């Protein structure tokens, strides 16, 4: 590993927690170059919802490359893009009664967020945006301005302005009415709150600590936006593509955001791609007003098309994620209940789960113990106090049980 330490920047992070060289990956498993298997409850930070090298997606990609398919096309028309857009419309949008135009903003989730913020400000002529405590929306300047984590914000090196944080669901202890503070500020001409162009929200905060908003809270947020003529942006970069059960994480709440940000697993294969979905009446871009070189990566269109048609043409995967996610959640609850004096909390929904510990040091030790036992998971939360699980949606029942057992052993080893 000396070449990595010699040449790669100190900014590297995941490799510090998993100090092996990985060589091969298949399904829910990664293998180090010495052949040791690791059950992957990280899944590329949610970019590999269908596991590593899924055979259907891999074969589609191989066929496309062998037939000399166009690899890079900016925003030119290609067969691969047409196939993807048709699948998106037929499999996702029309069955859900959603009408969106599709912006290809660039290769990553932060690109999708930046496009959403830029468009909201262009449409409304307003600069301010409301975000939420413990939010994470990306590492570029606009996305950082609506992110809560102080360490990540500090890396910007300049003031991050034109965004105002508000309390996320259940941020306060006690019985407080939802949005009592935000709504009062919006209605009081003396509050000093700049009139917002948009509110951006994650339905489940992944990096923020696996904080899952109640559907009632999300509905109330949607109603508040409509009442005050504020655009609602849902950042579904990590929690979309089936992570919580339905394809879009906001479906259970029955809301229809004005703008939706997607990336991570939208290509299905871990190939970079991002989408910003916008209501048709919001499509006020001038040609070329928002662009980038890597908006037309055809291999991502190919695998994304096959992922949509193979996994989302019916509700089989959704039902599986709900059922197996419930089992995973129950397993974490059993672990928590086995340590009543440790102040642990099981959190999350679907296949976005976690255990909150008293501090980040304990959570980090649990993740390290799990790595020693052949399981990959990371920490999240403002102080890294949550052991975070994002397994592939294609996890088998046996792999669910195996993961629970490794986590059980790891927690017990650290807390003994």
From TrEMBL:
Pathway: Amine and polyamine biosynthesis; ectoine biosynthesis; L-ectoine from L-aspartate 4-semialdehyde: step 1/3. It comes from the Bacteria. It is an enzyme of class 2 (transferase). InterPro entries: Aminotrans_3, Aminotrans_3_PPA_site, Dat, Ectoine_EctB, PyrdxlP-dep_Trfase, PyrdxlP-dep_Trfase_major, PyrdxlP-dep_Trfase_small. Keywords: Aminotransferase, Pyridoxal phosphate, Transferase. Its EC number is 2.6.1.76. Its cofactor is pyridoxal 5'-phosphate. GO terms for molecular function: diaminobutyrate-2-oxoglutarate transaminase activity. Belongs to the class-III pyridoxal-phosphate-dependent aminotransferase family. This is Diaminobutyrate--2-oxoglutarate transaminase. It comes from Haloechinothrix salitolerans. The lineage of its organism: Bacteria, Bacillati, Actinomycetota, Actinomycetes, Pseudonocardiales.
């Amino acid at each position: 590993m000396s070449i990595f330490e010699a040449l790669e920047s100190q900014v590297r992070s995941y490799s510090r927690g998993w100090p092996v060289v990985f060589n091969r990956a298949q399904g829910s498993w990664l293998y180090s170059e010495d052949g040791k298997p690791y059950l992957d409850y990280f899944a590329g930070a949610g970019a590999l919802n269908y596991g590593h090298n899924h055979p259907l997606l891999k074969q589609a990609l191989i066929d496309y490359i062998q037939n000399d398919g166009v690899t890079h096309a900016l925003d030119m028309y290609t067969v691969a893009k047409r196939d993807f857009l048709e699948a998106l419309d037929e499999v996702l949008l029309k069955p859900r009664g959603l009408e969106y135009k599709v912006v290809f903003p660039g290769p990553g989730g932060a690109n999708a967020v930046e496009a959403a913020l830029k468009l909201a400000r262009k449409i409304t002529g307003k600069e301010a945006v409301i975000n939420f405590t413990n939010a994470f929306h990306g590492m570029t300047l606009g996305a950082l301005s609506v992110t809560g984590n102080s360490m990540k914000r500090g890396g910007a090196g300049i003031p991050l302005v034109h965004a105002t944080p508000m309390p996320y669901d259940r941020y306060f202890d006690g019985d407080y009415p939802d949005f009592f503070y935000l709504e009062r500020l919006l209605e009081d001409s003396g509050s000093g709150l700049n009139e917002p162009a948009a509110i951006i929200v994650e339905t489940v905060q992944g990096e923020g600590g696996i904080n899952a908003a109640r559907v009632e809270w999300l509905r109330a947020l949607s109603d508040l936006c409509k009442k005050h003529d504020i655009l609602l942006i849902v950042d579904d970069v990590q929690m979309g593509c089936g992570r919580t059960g339905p394809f879009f994480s906001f479906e259970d709440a029955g809301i229809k955001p004005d703008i939706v940000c997607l990336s991570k697993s939208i290509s299905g294969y871990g190939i970079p791609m991002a989408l910003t979905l916008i209501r048709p009446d919001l499509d006020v871009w001038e040609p070329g007003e928002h662009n980038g070189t890597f908006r037309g990566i055809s291999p991502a269109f190919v695998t994304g098309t096959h992922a949509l048609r193979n996994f989302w043409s019916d509700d089989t995967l959704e039902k599986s994620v709900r059922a197996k996610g419930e089992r995973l959640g129950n397993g974490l609850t059993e672990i928590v209940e086995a340590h009543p004096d440790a102040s642990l909390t099981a959190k999350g929904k679907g296949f976005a789960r976690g255990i909150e510990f008293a501090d980040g040091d304990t959570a980090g030790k649990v993740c390290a113990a799990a790595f020693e036992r052949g399981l990959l998971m990371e920490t999240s939360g403002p102080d890294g106090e949550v052991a975070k699980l994002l397994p592939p949606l294609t996890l088998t029942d046996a792999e669910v049980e195996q993961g629970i057992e490794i986590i059980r052993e790891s927690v017990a080893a650290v807390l003994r």
